[in-house]
Amino acid sequence: MPIKVRSLLRKFLIWKYKHISERQFVYILSILVGFLAGIGTVVLKNLTYYIGHLFNLYIFKNYQSTLYFVLPIIGLLLVYIIKQTWLKKHIGHGISTTLHAISKLNGIIPRYNIYAGLITAPLTAGFGGSVGLQGPAVSIGSALGSNTARLFHMNTKTRMLLIGCASAGAMASMFKAPIAAIIFAIEIFSLDIAFTSLVPLLLASVSAVVTSYFFLGTDVLLRFELIDKFEINDILFYVLLGLVTGHMSVYFSKVFFSITNFFKSFESRAKRLLIGGIAIGTMLFLIPPLYGEGYGIMNNLLKGDHLAAIGNTPFNLDLDNIWIVIGLLFGITLFKAIAMTTTFGAGGVGGVFIPTLVMGSALGNAFAKVINNIGFGFDVSESNFTLIGMTGLMAGVLHAPLTAIFLIAEITGGYELFVPLILVSAISFAITKYYVSHSVYTLKLAKRGELITHNKDQNVLMMLEIDKVIETNFVILKPEMTLGDILKNAVAKSSRNHFPVVSKKHEFLGVIRLDDIRHMMFNTELYDKVTAEGLMHADAGIINYDEDSMNDIMMKFKTSGAWNLPVIKNGKYYGYISKSKLLTAYRRQLINVTH
């Protein structure tokens, strides 16, 4: 930061301390963060739109089918080059990265996350990668919120809150749905919903929506006016739809994890690009509706124009046959998850949120068409089932039923479908939760014990850094050392009362405590006869640096009753953690998070 800017910032902070209360300043920053998140989302959407529009205007007219195969590969190649030559840093999938920053990095998000997503996500989606922009929008907004808090020297709790504000702002700007955006931030990021947190979230969401309206006008991504009201006679069909969307959510999650693990088996990024690029190009060539984000599919299905939603296919299919249309819609539902995850595996940058909505819209519409055409005289609203299908997939895949309910309710401009929204969301979420305990955003974090929840005690433990509580200034003993050596080179030179015994390969063998040798310290006859190997014994427990979470460590202290436990890293002795130091660090972190 330039010296003049730093000087001005220092003067402003001094003025702020004198004239503005901390709460008022948080309100001001929440408006600023909402505005910045709104700007970031607007730029992200426009860049993606103009890239896609450029292809539609000049290229697709003559080479449409061929370019469905070629363009996504070119986009992925450009992203690969940018990552390898310029960024040289990992770019996560937005929401997962933000959750990790909250749980393990005290909300500190690197500045490069602001521009990395702005460049790579439009190239991925604009060139036809089958991903969404909501994840990158949240990543950009979160980075803006984190770095705004750091710029003005805000504490950890406020930094976390501003990340939530920015995430809500990105969501609000993307869909023009401020209430759903607030619920999204609370539900996904497990934010404290006290009044002091709710007001900044409201201010950020409104600020982002106003910004979006200012730059984009009244245009919205999903255009729909509710015409058909909820019919109580359709309640059984909505229950069946909840069951279908629940199982499809399980399918989505299983496909996501399986394909992700498949690509992880290739260490070379170039090999991932080659395999993934060819696979995604082939899928888009055979199923063109998978191209890009998929807003066209959703909007056309909501308007009742399934022919426009399906578009041109390379096969001469009779689209006047409704069962062929139903089959194609089910095909879109199944392959959207595969195409999206393959895009990620090949190195593309994007989000899961929009593909989930696309799958839900195709599934809900196909489900309604089946009901209307099975020959029993049923007549359900295809547009309503399209919307409710989106809700079911979102509730299941993202494990966010409240966000799903309120987002669709706001999109429709009313709450006439509130009953089926709640019903389908609850059923879908319950089924998915039974088979898949965590969402695609949170599974990895949960496995590592790094998932933030509404349990404040567990969250504080999670935010502790193990390296800050490990002590390494212990005198190490070798198993062949005699009692005399131990007294001369360890006991006499250390203020500690226990000494780890390690092998030549630095493997932890056991421990000798001062109490173990106190009764023989002055018996000189034993100095050359007794060795460390004969005196050492197993410790009360062992902490595995690579596997144990802070919650696991606390439980080991509780079950063992020990005050000190050794830490093993990569199979080698690394140091000790004391219960007193761990509790002291916990208290300090609790103060940082709650004040």
TrEMBL record:
InterPro entries: CBS_dom (IPR000644), CBS_dom_sf (IPR046342), Cl-channel_core (IPR014743), ClC (IPR001807), ClC-type_chloride_channel (IPR050368)
Annotated CDD domains: Voltage_gated_ClC (cd00400)
Pfam name, any one: Voltage_CLC
Entry keywords, A to Z: CBS domain, Chloride, Chloride channel, Ion channel, Ion transport, Membrane, Transmembrane, Transmembrane helix, Transport
Compartments reported by the entry: Membrane
Keyword Isomerase annotated: no
Annotated CBS domain residues: 470-529
Membrane topology: Multi-pass membrane protein
PROSITE patterns assigned to the protein according to its UniProt record, in alphabetical order: CBS (PS51371)
GO cellular component term, pick one: chloride channel complex
Membrane-spanning residues: 25-43, 63-82, 112-133, 160-186, 193-215, 235-252, 273-291, 322-339, 346-367, 387-408, 415-436
Protein name: Chloride channel protein
